[in-house]
Write a structure and sequence with these properties.
This protein is mainly alpha-helical. It has 18 helices and eight strands. The longest helix has 37 residues.
Length: 471
């Protein structure tokens, strides 16, 4: 009968490891040392580590430093991990000391022990496949972990770009739907000039389009990797044949257009590329937060606020106030993107904290970056599916608020002068009599002029409203 534990040894001595565990002593020590976030590394990073290890095994065979049978066993183990198996064996906390060494060793041990089984041995028999001598051959944490982080980041970035594109499409659909609905525009939370609902959606769509383009293009910045640079980028202990083939093999596996960095020391010690990517995620988060805030304002009420928009009713809004419906989709999106903004600050601080030839804080960078990528993708789809798609507009409310404001006085200023327009606006606000009524009453414009000057097309496009030269 198999014992419940097995004994493994490292430079610190012996340790008991669960007999059925695929991880080993290095992972067990890390689990004991880093009880921080309570979550393991991202599943996409687990897959990326396996892809890197598989590419390195094949490159080592090409370099003539790894036995073919061991390579095949390693590759089979890596394939299982990429397929989603053995992820429960990646148990090291996402926040860890050592620049990712614990996660790299977690991968080395899991892959080694599974490879051992493929070769007919039992877990822990590292004479068959060794975590360091075979799985980690020609590598260091310092080139493996950053490379895997970039591969995982690209894999997570693409769905974000797609989600932003779909959100843009949803906004553009509403732009067309409400192209002819005129409402009151507002600046500094005060009545401004007329705008169509379609124009408001078009502006939001344009902002999201910029975000999509920036995120689509920034993938290029993640494609330069330092695999083959080993400890500090000099490539010590990595055969030249390995250095020149490992990235090519990994590129074929991922299809991501990866390239070996021209200066591997630079890419090993500097993490500014992650700050750049995070900054663009933050920019997109800002736009989502702005849109969500605008939608909450425009739908506020429905009787005591603006009430121009009607957001889809998703759930009862109160445990005490019957009939209350809250804008929960926009609130959830706002919280998600605030977290993206907070993650950006963490990434910025961690990237600048790197010292000399290595950044020890890349586990935090990875954890925060992957969290931002996940949140932004989900927030974009939530906003599109749960909010934008079902928005309705109260056209009567839009018309009433526009006509009861002094906004139309601005369109009259080129015809009657700024001072007279100011007097009209002041009276309208003081008495509740509409601007058109005052203009006609005082003979400032004719009914024909008024009709032309207040047409939706005239009020919401460039030029002076009612100017015959615009015809």
């Amino acid at each position: 009968m198999q014992s419940e534990t097995r004994t493994e040894t490292d430079l610190l001595g012996e340790l008991q490891v669960p007999a059925d565990a695929y991880f080993g002593i290095h992972t067990a020590r890390a689990v004991a040392n880093f009880d921080l976030s309570g979550r393991p590394i991202h599943s996409e990073l687990v897959k990326s580590l396996a892809l890197v290890k598989k590419a390195c095994a094949l490159a080592n065979v090409k370099a003539g430093v790894l036995d073919e049978s061991i390579c095949q066993a390693i590759c089979r183990a890596c394939d299982e991990i990429v397929e989603g198996k053995l992820h429960d064996q990646f148990v090291v906390d996402a926040l860890q000391g050592g620049a990712g060494t614990s996660s790299n060793m977690n991968a080395n041990e899991v892959i080694a022990n599974r490879a051992i089984e493929f070769l007919g041995g039992e877990k822990g028999d590292y004479s068959l496949v060794h975590p360091n001598d075979h799985v980690n051959l020609s590598q260091s944490t310092n080139d493996v972990f950053p490379t895997a982080v970039k591969v995982a980041a690209i894999a997570l970035l693409r769905p974000v770009s797609k989600a932003m594109s779909e959100l843009q499409g949803g906004l553009q659909q509403k732009e067309k739907e409400f192209a002819n609905v005129v409402k009151l525009g507002r600046t500094e939370m005060q009545d401004a000039v007329p705008v169509t609902v379609g124009q408001e959606f078009a502006a939001w769509a344009q902002a999201i389009q910029r975000d999509w383009w920036r995120l689509y293009k920034v993938e290029e910045r993640l494609r330069q990797v330092n695999l083959g640079g080993t400890a500090i980028g000099t490539g010590l202990n990595a055969p030249l044949k390995f250095v020149f083939s490992a990235v090519e093999i990994l590129r074929d596996f991922t299809g991501f257009g990866l390239a070996r960095a021209e200066n591997m020391i630079d890419v090993t010690q500097n993490c500014d590329v992650f700050v750049e990517v995070s900054g663009l995620l933050k920019a997109a988060a800002v736009d989502l937060a702005k849109i969500a805030a605008d939608l909450r304002l425009l739908s506020s009420g429905p009787r005591g606020g603006m009430g121009e928009f009607k957001l889809p009713p998703l759930q009862a809004g109160s445990s005490i106030m019957p009939g209350k419906i809250n804008p929960v989709a926009t609130e959830a999106v706002t919280q998600a993107v605030y977290k993206v903004m907070a993650n950006d600050q963490a990434i910025t601080m961690a990237a600048q904290a790197g010292q000399l030839e290595l950044n020890a804080f890349i586990p935090l960078i990875a954890d925060a970056l992957f969290d931002s990528l996940d949140l932004l993708q989900r927030a974009s789809m939530l906003l599109k599916d749960k909010c934008i798609a079902g928005i309705e507009v109260d056209e009567e409310r839009c018309k009433a608020l526009l006509e009861s404001s002094a906004a139309l006085a601005t369109a009259m200023a080129p015809h009657i002068g700024y001072d007279k327009a100011s007097v009209v606006a002041k009276e309208a606000l003081a008495t509740g009599v509409s601007v058109p009524v005052i203009l006609l009453r005082d003979g400032l414009v004719s009914e024909e002029q008024l009709a032309e000057m207040t047409s939706p097309q005239q009020l919401t496009t460039p030029g002076v409203a009612g100017d015959k030269k615009r015809r």
